[in-house]
Amino acid sequence: MTTSLVPLILLGGLTSAGVYLLLERNLTRMLLGLLLISNAINLLILIAGGPAGEPPIWGRGSEPQTTTADPLAQGMILTAIVITMGVAAFVLAMAYRTYRLTTAEEVGDDPEDAKVSELASKDIAAVEEDRPQPEAMRDTDAPDELDALPGYEGSK
């Protein structure tokens, strides 16, 4: 199977632009990035579906095509479009609600997350202080009391 280079370049461009927009702190840009990535995934499924062919319906066909198109790729793309619409509606509703509450579209740092992060770093420092440090004298080649089995007197 041969694939044209143009859809692959378009796929890479859509994915990179979508990731760039998704990493922004603006909810509208995040939504646009999500839509670009979903369109890139749809293009990837279309490319992976193989070459075009006859419609996958019995009794319908065109003369020049000898192969049948894969209906699985078409069904997966339609399902992905519906899922993308649902996720986009959710993100859009979340952006609208955030704008109504704060009159800003930027996603800020959550003060509760900052408190939890600060407490976690303090807890890690406290655990590190309480951890017993290995003794330097113990690391020798001499046999320890745990090296021998109980009741074993050695070979006689």
Automatic annotation (TrEMBL):
Residues 122-156 are annotated as: Disordered. It is found in: Cell membrane. Keywords: Cell membrane, Membrane, Transmembrane, Transmembrane helix. It is a multi-pass membrane protein. It comes from the Bacteria. Gene3D superfamilies: 1.10.287.3510. GO terms for cellular component: plasma membrane. Residues 128-141 have a biased composition (Basic and acidic residues). The chain crosses the membrane at residues 6-23, 30-52, 72-96. Belongs to the CPA3 antiporters (TC 2.A.63) subunit C family. This is Cation:proton antiporter.
